[in-house]
Design brief:
Blueprint: H1 3-24, E1 34-40, H2 47-66, E2 75-81, H3 85-98, E3 103-106, H4 110-122, E4 126-129, E5 145-147, H5 152-156, H6 158-170, E6 179-185, H7 188-203, E7 207-214, H8 222-231, E8 235-239, H9 242-254, E9 262-264, H10 272-278, E10 286-289, H11 301-318, H12 324-339, H13 349-358, E11 386-391, E12 394-399
Parallel strand pairs: 1-2, 1-3, 3-4, 4-5, 6-7, 6-8, 8-9, 9-10
Antiparallel strand pairs: 10-11, 11-12
Helix pairs in contact: 2-11, 2-12, 3-4, 6-7, 9-10
Length: about 425
C-alpha cells in the first residue's frame, strides 16, 4: 500500500471509528437538558399536597444537578398545574407539545394521576407516579407507567396491623377485645383505603364497630361525631383530605368527644397544614402513612448523606421541617432521575421502561427506607407503609422497627387542650 493510499484511507477509518464510537454510546448521552414534567395540583383543593410533593421532587433535582447532573446533563423540572383532572390532561399535552417533555412524574391524587398517566401512555411518553394510590392505577395494562409509591392497600393495612401489634397493648387490651371505627371520604381514595382497612381488621380478628363513608365536600360532620360517640370505638381509623380532616377534629372538640386513639391514613393527617390548623391538639394522633423518615442505622451510607442533604436543603429553602409529602417527593425524584434515567440506555420511552423493569434497588436505598423492584404491572414491591405519630407538632416514625425513631406517646389521648 502506497503512502498516498494510506493517507486517503486514514481519514475514512477515523470517520468510521468516530461513527462507531457515537453509535456504541447510549443514545441518552446527547447534548441538552433532561426534561421532566411534574403534573401536580398546584392550586385548588389539592394544592397542599401537590406543592409539597413537587417541592420534594425539586430538591432532588437541585441535589442531582449540583452533583453534576446525569452523564453531565442537567435536569430541568417543568410545572404542570393539574388542579382538576381536565387540567391535568391539558397540562400533560401542553408540556408534550410545547416543551418536548417525554418524561413525567406526579401527582398527589389518584384523580389527577389516572388521567395524566393515561395521556402520557397515549402519547408514548414515560410516567412515574409517587402518591396516587388507586388500586386500579397499575391494572390498566399500560406499558410505560410505573408507581414507585404505595397502592391503597399499602396505606390501609398498616393501621389495623398496628392496632393489633402495638396499640392494643398500649390501651391495656387484647387485640381480640379492641373495637375500631373506620371512616372515609367517598372518593376512590377513601373507598379503596378504608375497604382495605376493613378487610385487614377482619383478618386480624379486630371488630369493626362502624364503617362509614361521607362526602369530602361536607361542611358538617357532627352527625358522624354522634355516631362515633354512640359506638364507642377504642380507635378511629380515618381516610380524609385536609379540609375534612381538620373539620372532624374541630367538631369532635366542640362536641367534647375524644376517642382513646385516632389513626389517619396519610393525606390530610400527614401534612404540616394539619398541625397548623389544630395546633397542639395534633399531638398523639397517628397516621398509617408513607414513611417520612427512617432510622439512619438502617440506611446505606450514601442514603444517610442524601437524608442530611434533603433536610438541610428543604429547611433552608422553605423554612419548615419537611413531613411525609415532601419526603415522598424527594424519594420519587431520586428514584426516577438517579436510578431510572441515570441507568437507561436511551432517552426514549422504551429505554426508560427497560431500566425500570430491570431495577433492583435494595431496601434502605432511599431516605424513607424503601428500595425498588417492580412487578409486571409496574408496582414497586419494596415500598411499605409506616406508622407515624405527631409529637411536638412534628411527624415521627414509630413503626415498623426499621423506621422507628421514637416510642409512641399520649396513649390514650389526653383531654382536648392538654396535649
Amino acid at each position: 500500500m502506497t503512502t498516498a493510499t494510506r493517507r486517503s484511507i486514514l481519514p475514512m477509518l477515523a470517520g468510521a471509528a468516530a461513527a462507531t464510537s457515537v453509535l456504541s454510546r447510549p443514545s441518552f448521552a446527547q447534548e441538552g437538558p433532561i426534561k421532566i414534567g411534574g403534573i401536580f395540583p398546584l392550586t385548588g383543593a389539592g394544592s397542599v399536597f401537590g406543592n409539597q410533593n413537587f417541592q420534594g421532587v425539586e430538591i432532588a433535582v437541585d441535589l442531582i444537578n449540583d452533583r453534576g447532573g446525569i452523564n453531565g446533563r442537567k435536569v430541568v423540572l417543568f410545572k404542570g398545574d393539574g388542579h382538576t383532572p381536565q387540567a391535568a390532561i391539558s397540562e400533560t399535552n401542553r408540556l408534550l407539545a410545547r416543551e418536548g417533555v417525554r418524561i413525567f412524574t406526579g401527582s398527589s391524587t389518584s384523580a389527577v394521576g389516572m388521567v395524566a398517566s393515561q395521556e402520557a401512555e397515549r402519547n408514548g411518553a414515560f410516567y412515574w407516579e409517587g402518591m396516587a394510590v388507586a388500586n386500579d392505577f397499575t391494572a390498566r395494562g399500560f406499558k410505560n407507567v410505573f408507581r414507585v409509591g404505595l397502592d391503597a392497600g399499602g396505606l390501609g393495612r398498616p393501621a389495623p396491623l398496628y392496632v393489633a401489634e402495638a396499640l392494643a397493648g398500649l390501651l391495656k387490651k387484647s387485640s381480640k377485645d379492641i373495637r375500631i371505627a373506620i371512616i372515609a371520604e367517598d372518593s376512590a381514595f377513601g373507598v379503596d383505603v378504608s375497604s382495605t382497612a376493613v378487610a385487614e381488621a377482619k383478618k386480624l380478628g379486630i371488630a369493626v364497630a362502624l364503617h362509614e363513608l361521607y362526602s369530602a365536600k361536607t361542611t358538617d360532620l357532627s352527625p358522624l361525631v354522634l355516631k362515633l360517640r354512640s359506638v364507642k370505638p377504642d380507635a378511629i381509623v380515618a381516610t380524609q383530605f385536609i379540609n375534612d380532616a381538620v373539620l372532624l377534629q374541630r367538631q369532635m372538640k366542640e362536641m367534647r368527644y375524644r376517642p382513646p386513639a385516632f389513626i389517619g391514613t396519610s393525606a390530610g393527617h400527614s401534612t404540616l397544614s394539619f398541625a397548623e390548623a389544630i395546633g397542639d391538639d395534633v399531638n398523639g394522633i397517628f397516621s398509617s402513612s408513607y414513611p417520612n423518615d427512617a432510622n439512619p442505622d438502617g440506611l446505606l451510607p450514601e442514603t444517610r448523606s442524601d437524608r442530611e442533604e434533603f433536610l438541610k436543603r428543604y429547611q433552608a429553602k422553605y423554612k419548615v421541617v419537611p413531613a411525609v409529602q415532601e419526603s415522598l417527593g424527594f424519594v420519587v425524584g431520586m428514584a426516577l432521575i438517579r436510578d431510572i434515567i441515570g441507568k437507561a440506555m436511551g432517552a426514549d420511552t422504551a429505554g426508560l421502561r427497560d431500566a425500570a423493569l430491570a431495577a433492583d434497588v435494595p431496601a434502605g436505598s432511599y431516605i424513607n427506607g424503601w428500595g425498588m423492584k417492580f412487578d409486571e404491572k409496574g408496582q414497586n414491591l419494596r415500598a411499605f407503609g409506616s406508622m407515624v405519630q405527631w409529637q411536638s407538632r412534628r411527624m415521627v416514625s414509630v413503626y415498623p422497627a426499621a423506621n422507628k425513631m421514637a416510642d409512641p406517646i399520649l396513649v390514650p389521648l389526653p383531654a382536648w387542650g392538654a396535649r
